[in-house]
Amino acid sequence: MGLRIHFVVDPHGWCCMGLIVFVWLYNIVLIPKIVLFPHYEEGHIPGILIIIFYGIAIFCLVALVRASFTDPGRLPENPKIPHGEREFWELCNKCNLMRPKRSHHCSRCGHCVRRMDHHCPWINNCVGEDNHWLFLQLCFYTELLTSYALMFSFCHYYYFLPVKKRNLDLFVVRHELAIMRLAAFMGITMLVGITGLFYTQLIGIITMWKQRPHFPPSP
């Protein structure tokens, strides 16, 4: 089944998504500028590590876009309920529409979502039946990118050979320590949060799969 486009008009969600994009841009611009490219030019690391870094960054951005703009499982206004499945449907007391059981009404989006897990402001979208796996992908790639950036930040100061050619006229070189400290703070914060979120989402999907209803065959 193809994924349907879904767009939520929510300024709060836009601000949260903007913050995520800012952190993403901060990492893919400054980490290569300060760490990857200088060490590559002096022969300390192979070029494949830079390619891997940008590859993970692209996968992370694509996962964010897909999770944000994919319909999470919004119910239509006049759903067609198969005769044999009527006992698995109920009336929503907020929008007065019929919905399958274990669906929930999102007050921020204003509609019911099948198997809704939660409304995530960081993707400005609900996490439901149709985009739960995309949200899990986003958590995985974000955790991978954050770990990769933190690893290079650590190696830059404690493992790699010192960079000999440094252009002190560049802003990022003059303020390298402050920039790297901020990157490390954002990275550790995101890594801790995403690790917990990734674990809970993975457990939620497994539990949802085990508890899915088994509809009787239609006559």
From TrEMBL:
Transmembrane ranges, per UniProt, are 12-36, 48-69, 140-161, 182-209
**GO CC annotations, alphabetized:** endoplasmic reticulum; Golgi apparatus; membrane
Where is the protein found, in the record's own terms? Membrane
User: Which terms are listed as keywords in the entry?
Assistant: Acyltransferase, Membrane, Transferase, Transmembrane, Transmembrane helix
Give the catalysed reaction(s), semicolon-separated: L-cysteinyl-[protein] + hexadecanoyl-CoA = S-hexadecanoyl-L-cysteinyl-[protein] + CoA
Q: How does it sit in the membrane?
A: Multi-pass membrane protein
Q: Which Pfam families did the record assign?
A: DHHC
Record-annotated Palmitoyltransferase DHHC domain positions: 89-206
EC number of this enzyme = 2.3.1.225
Q: Name one GO biological process term.
A: protein targeting to membrane
The organism sits in which domain of life?
Eukaryota
Instruction: Give the family, as the similarity comment puts it.
Output: Belongs to the DHHC palmitoyltransferase family.
- PANTHER family assigned: PALMITOYLTRANSFERASE ZDHHC21 (PTHR22883:SF11), ZINC FINGER DHHC DOMAIN CONTAINING PROTEIN (PTHR22883)
Q: What is known of its domains?
A: The DHHC domain is required for palmitoyltransferase activity.
From the Swiss-Prot or TrEMBL record, give the protein name.
Palmitoyltransferase
Query: What does the organism's lineage look like at the top?
Result: Eukaryota, Metazoa, Chordata, Craniata, Vertebrata
